[in-house]
Amino acid sequence: MFIQSTGADENASQIIHWLSKFRNQIQHSTLRAIRLPETGEWFLHQALFQSWCHDEKPNNIFWCNGIPGAGKSVITSLVVDYLLSSFTEGSEGVAYIYCDPNDLCQQTPVMMMAELLAQLLDSKKAMPRPVLQLYERYDRGKWSPQIEDLETTLLLVCKKFRKLFFVMDGLDELGDGRYWNRLVALLKSLTTTTVRLFVTSRPHWVGVRNMLDHPQFTITAHEKDVRKYLIHTMQQDNDFAKLIDGSLQSKIIRRIMQSSQRTFLNAAIQIQSLMRHTTLADIELAITRMSLDTSKLLEETLEDIKRQSKDRSNLAMKTLTWLAHAKRPMLVKELCQGLAISPGDCCPKKINLVQLKSILDSCLGLVV
């Protein structure tokens, strides 16, 4: 690593663990696992992206926006892999954060700064002097660092790199304005160093005004990617794959491509709805009735949920009720525990716990 240090430090792993509280590698691995081979590669060839990556004097912020379900997080995972494989010199670095609405208590500006710093460190190499000083200042990790000290340390470490890439997916997911105000100040100060910042968000995010002077790109579900996803999904269901022929498969793909409004979420709901039919006649009828209206599509999915077995229908409706009335985004564990509480009980019972797969299957694509 291209950083002056004080020599090998036996507590390097402890320092990194002290700083890093996120599970970004798990989230990244999950997104990589669901990304089909060769999908999303069109984005890597975009001139704006290549310029941001490789130009000697680029515009240091690249903002990508897209509606929910467009595939922003999957594209982000592809960008992270590309950067990690393309910039491997000791004077280059990559750090990334997947903002999670289910973990807002952890994703504060302090935590995010600490996570970015942790990803720039290497447990097999000596720690940079500013990091060691920070660690000692807080009694060798017994206390959490203050935001001012973290910001100073992060800026000092960043300046020692020739080129740095910070990737932040779903920055709008932080929600509360106070998080954004402090964080945007940090991001702006970082981009005055060697940091190149890649950000994704929804198009009409309140923080958009801070991105308008920088390169922008709108992410939509790419036609070839949606096609591959639909083919893969149909082939995964042996009974459905045997039921349809190539001509009907092509017809299904064309119709979903027309009605999905270039979002993976709509395409996923539509193909899952279609694959619940067990005869060619029902499939053909469902194709002709496939809605172009997202609201109508959701209404039809709710009707399909109600037509399931009583147990599955009740599970789905309880799940949707919990999510709709929650005062904040729920963790998976919290949702499972909530569903395990029976009327009259004050706490969940282990015998009532439901597997996550059963919850997702019962909701027919409305919960992901």
UniProtKB/TrEMBL annotation:
Residues 39-202 form the Nephrocystin 3-like N-terminal domain. Keywords: Repeat. It comes from the Eukaryota. InterPro entries: NPHP3-like_N, P-loop_NTPase. The keyword Repeat applies. Pfam families: NPHP3_N. The keyword Repeat applies. SUPFAM superfamilies: P-loop containing nucleoside triphosphate hydrolases (SSF52540). This is Nephrocystin 3-like N-terminal domain-containing protein. It comes from Trichoderma asperellum (strain ATCC 204424 / CBS 433.97 / NBRC 101777).
